[in-house]
What we know:
This protein is of the alpha+beta class. It is built from four helices and eight strands.
Amino acid sequence: MSEQKLLGELREENGSGVVRVEDVYATGIDDLWSAITEPDRLARWIAQVSGDLRVGGEFDATFTSGWVGTGRIEVCAAPTLLRVRTQQPGEQATVMEAQLSPAAGGTRLVIEERGLPLAEYAGHGAGWQAHVEDLHAHIAGTASMDWMQRWRELSPAYVALVSR
């Protein structure tokens, strides 16, 4: 396997796992905000979402990864900050936060997911990188890759981050 460029970092915080992925997208902040908040665009790279999509509102989501659950929008400060709390039935809730800022060459996107079980957060790191790579494809107008295949390729590198 060739050397992987990892876009993510993993850390432990208060007994749970945190995944942080960061990259710059060759588009303006308003376009990237649209890609991470509008249901029709979300469906093209990460998830089908439906429900009350405003602060305090609850929604249902089905991710390309196979994750299915509910969420609540906690913060929506367009076009720089989105925070949602998500949960699968029978699992602990996690908090996902997206921060956008201008950067050379486009817009920087930082995504953090907090509250992950320590046994699972390496897999979430690989998953988030696969998702943000699909976001790059969406922004560029090209086809997404096979999410599961990319997750499998990235997983060993993220597992190695945990064992350091």
